Amino acid sequence: MSERPIIEISDLTKFYKGNDEPAINQISLNIYRNEIFGLLGPNGAGKTTTISILCGLFLPTQGEVSIDGMELRVNLDKIKQIIGVVPQDLALYPTLTALENLTFFGNMYGLRGKELHDRIFDYLNVFGLEKAARKKISGYSGGMKRRVNLIAGLLHRPKILFLDEPTVGIDVQSRMVILEYLKEINKTGTTIIYTSHYMEEAENLCSRVAIIDHGKIISIGNPLELLSEHPEFKNLETIFIHLTGKGLRD
Amino acid sequence: MLFKYVSAFKKEWLILIRDISGLILLFLMPMVMVIILALVQEFGWNSMSTEPQVPVLYVDLDHDSLGVQMEKGFNSSRIFNLVSSIDDVPLTQEKARQLVFDGKYQIAVIIPEHTTERIRKKIQLMVAKTLSSLTMPAQNFLNDIKNADSIQVTLYFDPEVRNSFKNAFLSSMKENNSRIESKMIFSSFSNELRKQFPQFELPDAVYSKSLTFSEVYPSGEEHELIPTSTQHNVPSWTIFAMFFIVIPLTSSIIKEREDGSMTRLLTMPVSYLNIFMAKIGVYLIVCFVQFILMVLAGMFLLPLFGIAALDPGRQYFLLGVMAIASSLAALGYGIMVGTLAKTHQQAAAFGSVSVVILAALGGLWVPTYLMPPIMKHVATFSPLNWAHAGFLDVFLRGSDFMAVSHELIKLFIFFLCTVAIAITYRKITPPFGA
User: Fold this and answer.
1) B41 vs B139, higher pLDDT
2) C-alpha span between B230 and B39 (Å, rounded)
3) Region label for B425, one of left (φ > 0), alpha (ψ between -120 and 50) or beta (otherwise)
4) For chain B, which has fewer Cβ within 10 Å, the N-terminal or C-terminal residue?
């Protein structure tokens, strides 16, 4: 872990219209280069709100964010060039083929021609989709769609990759391929910010996790550190339930 | 910027052309709408039809010249088809009243007994009075005789009959009556003069119309553009259909938002304007092709149904510019509605109903010159009114570029304003309602 944070979050607060309670409340956090940082929390805890602000989808009500040394409010266009986003939704066009989808998203990052074409097929090979490249997305299985969804966020080789529940609802094989690849690109310098409900997955993948609830960070650290802080619990999931409670969330 | 625009355009184009059934509907439905609405309007008013259309129950209890002449007059108008018997049974007043009451017929005319005789007597008295005042002014005892009361012809109307149609029927009725009464007066005068002046041999005068009317339609074109109902209807319904592009366009925007693609795009280094403009580019082509198809339908398909063909005039370039300006206004409106609406239901309901309202306000159904002053003023704010006025200028007046420049500018400003509203709203409101 290098010393300088690639993402600096200070006093971040967001109120949604018509809500008296903040979705996130004075969050301060540093994420360092080459980290795989897990944002964990029950539904409505504030994970997606935090990631949405970091991706520039909307501005915080209060607080500052700096990404790779650039202030988010003033350098959004430059920041968009160095981040990749893999949303929870399968944000793909079902009537287009995987190749057409990926070509379009690559073009939006300014990639074109042979370079883009080669890059697309490299990724399709990695994720076992090269034979289905010219098949419409509507004909893909859930796991195949998830893999294309991930490739769309990787094409421009971002410095920082935001993943919002990238493995939800897919088979074990697809999940394994995705997680292995994330580890691999992290080794080559990509910082990953990741949200998930799968605690075991987060425990194995993340170098650090923050457990967030009711818009506040209630615990942060390396999964092993958290386990040593709570020796009465055997894994991250039990710590998570202990910290966030057993009550159902909307 | 241009490279990203071309890529987004290609993406929109592929999505559009891969939905074959949607594409067919997109082009076919407006043509069907233009043809059906033009046919309904054409035959509804029966302005060109050669066959009588509206059956009218006719009970002639007079059995004299007025009843016969009235029947001839109606039949020659080619608008009304007089029915005086059903299943070979002559109609009675009570039967006619019942049939109208049941809604089986819309109008019944009852000519009372001795109508002709009573009119004749009334006219004879009037003529005698007039002539006696000339020949025996001192002892005009006829002045003391009162005129007979008016004779009442009973008309039964189905409550479903619209006022405009009722007025058209009454006008026709009054016109027939005036002609018959004039003939009777003329004939009565001739007869009375023969009696008064038997020493003169008066020839049988034949009355012919003194006034004939020459219809001239000033046009900016060398050849005269005849304002048939097709020339009115096709531009109106074409604009109406073009504005319905709001529905597929809003659907495309909301779908992209709901499936998360828009969220992904907003995290990429590409502007919302770029994404919108790509949609506008593709749907502009759709609108333009729709316009060409609807004009071609007016030129070649409507004549197959016995309706006058659309004459597009010679201003093809100006027609194209008007079509593009109208399409841009429709697309800007669609982009705005699609951005502001939160769900497909909101967009579909608001989009379609607002287009119908703007069309009604814009004079597409009832001409603005027939509207009350306040509605005329409101109409000037409808983009469909600007498009309609521009197209009518080209289709009916053969106007040049300068004549429609006001409409073109207003349509273009409307397009810019609606796109600006959409972009501003999207900037301050994220696509998932934060």
Assistant:
1) B41
2) 9
3) alpha
4) N
Here the tokens at position B240 are 């109406």
Q: What pLDDT is attached to residue B10?
A: 97
Q: CB B434 to CB A49 under 8 A?
A: yes
CB contact under 8 A, A93 and B261: yes
| A42-46, A112-116, B145-149, B251-255: the lowest-pLDDT one | B145-149
Q: Which uninterrupted H or E stretch holds B26?
A: helix B20-45
Residue-wise pLDDT for B225-244, tens only, equals 666 778 878 888 889 989 99
Q: For residue B260, is it left (φ>0), alpha (ψ between -120 and 50) or beta?
A: left
**Phi/psi of residue B155, nearest 5 degrees:** -120, 125
Ramachandran region, residue B90 (left: φ > 0; alpha: ψ -120 to 50; beta: rest): beta
Find the angle CA(B346)-CA(B347)-CA(B351) to the nearest 5 degrees: 120
Strand order in the sheet with A24-32: A24-32, A5-14, A62-67, A70-71
The reply to whether the predicted model has a pTM over 0.90 is no
Q: How far apart are CA A160 and CA A162, in angstroms?
A: 7
Alpha helices (H) along B341-428: 344-361, 373-379, 383-397, 401-428
Provide the sign of the torsion angle of the four alpha carbons B385, B389, B395, B396, taken in this order.
positive
Q: Do B268 and A109 touch (CB under 8 A)?
A: yes
Question: What six digits make up the tokens of B114?
Answer: 């001795």
- 3-state SS assignment for residue B119: helix
Contact A58 B430 (CB under 8 A): yes
Phi then psi for residue B316, to 5 deg, are: -65, -40
Residues 6+ apart with CB under 8 A from A9: A27, A28, A29, A30, A31, A50, A54, A63, A64, A65
Find the closest chain B residue to A23 by CA distance: B434
Burial pattern A198-229, b for ≥16 Cβ within 10 A else e, equals bbebbbebbbbbbbbbbbebebbeebeebbee
Separation of alpha carbons A212 and A244, rounded Å = 8
Q: Which DSSP helix (H) or strand (E) runs through B72?
A: helix B65-77
Residues of A in contact with B8 (CB under 8 A): 104, 108
Token pair 């004459």 in the structure block, residue? B311
Is the CB of residue B250 less than 8 Å from the CB of residue B396? no
Classify B160 as helix, strand or coil: coil
Phi first, then psi: give them for residue A212, nearest 5 degrees. -120, 140
